Amino acid sequence: MAQMTMIQAITDALRTELKNDENVLVYGEDVGQNGGVFRATEGLQKEFGEERVFDTPLAESGIGGLSIGLALQGYRPVPEIQFFGFVYEAMDAINGQMARMRYRSGGTYSQPVTIRSPFGGGVHTPELHADSLEGLIAQQPGMKVVIPSTPYDAKGLLISSIRDNDPVLFLEHMKLYRSFRGEVPEKEYTIELGKADVKREGSDVTLVAYGAMVHASLKAAEELEKDGIQAEVIDLRTVMPFDIDTILESVKKTNRVVVVQEAQRQAGLAAQIVTEIQERAILHLEAPVLRVAAPDTVYPFSQAEEVWLPNYKDIIEKVDKVINF
User: Helix 151-163 and helix 6-20: axis angle, to 10°?
Assistant: First the structure.
């Protein structure tokens, strides 16, 4: 298997689906000749032509509307929102149109659209670039939200997303793009949407996370092991619909849970996950389900983001509370 960064795995997935299906189209701001701001589409326009990989105007609302029309005509659009903080301009297209199309048409039409977008903090971006806004889309029935944490998962999940007949938001954490390499098969493969992955097994506490917080959770688990605490780390991978069965199976084993997200406490997915655990498995819990999240403030300027963002020490603090409850 090849050693790839996450960005290389994403490019490989796009290339795979452009080869497999002539109806797959990749477009967005600067994704053509420039290969995107992070070079996720580098070389694809040269390989597949300007009619299948092309630049759009700087207009997210236009990108959203174009995607709806193309999907209705039988294409599989893969648009890019250059940074997810810019998604507000396309919210009507996503939540108001794409998510409702199958229901509205009585199953006559579908929206096989995969919206790719970078997000996430820790890389000192300007304002509106790093916000974790996944909760805005996850609250809309009809939308799937996928957030990989490894190169292997990124390729398999992106291929599955593009092949899905319903709209998918595929979010890519900027800090993970080139921070490490992992083994990725060079052949095509898929990972089932809606299926979590147990990244580390444990018996004392369950850590549920997604995106960059998976790696913070794994770091916390390593530190906790020094004190004899075995933490199980679950990577949601698909955050909506999330894999409640895998979570409950772990909870019944560990009896303690901490849910970790980068988004503000009032945002993200943690509150919904906590609620599902409490409703379905309260008799298996030895302590309240706790959350690790960012403060309920606007995302700070880059000088302060390291103080603002959750980290592995915050996770250890919450684990200590549930262990000693």
Answer: 30
* Catalytic positions: 129
Whose tokens are 């390593």? That residue is 222
Structure tokens at 94: 């996503």
First to last CA, the chain: 45
Structure token pair of residue 240: 């909506």
Query: 53-55 and 24-28: which strand pairing?
Result: parallel
- What are the beta bridge partners of residue 259? 208, 291
Own/partner pairs for 245-249, CB < 8 Å, 24+ apart? 246/195, 246/196, 246/198, 247/196, 247/206, 247/208, 247/273, 247/276, 247/277, 248/277, 248/280, 248/281
Judge whether 151 and 9 are in contact, CB under 8 Å: yes
Q: Copy the structure tokens of residue 298.
A: 């606007």
Cβ 38 vs Cβ 8: under 8 Å: no
Of 36, 42, 199, 192, nearest to 118 by C-alpha is 36
In angstroms, the CA 281 to CA 43 distance is 49
Q: Please give the model's pTM, rounded to 2 decimal places.
A: 0.97
Cβ distance 66 to 77 under 8 Å? yes
Residues 6+ apart with CB under 8 A from 147: 134, 170, 171, 172, 173, 210, 211, 236, 237, 238, 239
**Which phi and psi (to 5°) does residue 74 adopt?**
95, 5
Residue 154: helix, strand or coil by DSSP?
helix
Q: Give per-residue pLDDT as tens, 200-251.
A: 999 999 999 999 999 999 999 999 999 999 999 999 999 999 999 999 999 9
* 235 closest CA partner among 305, 295, 173: 173
In sequence order, the 6+-apart residues with CB closer than 8 A to the CB of 28 are 36, 55, 56, 63, 79, 80, 81, 82, 116
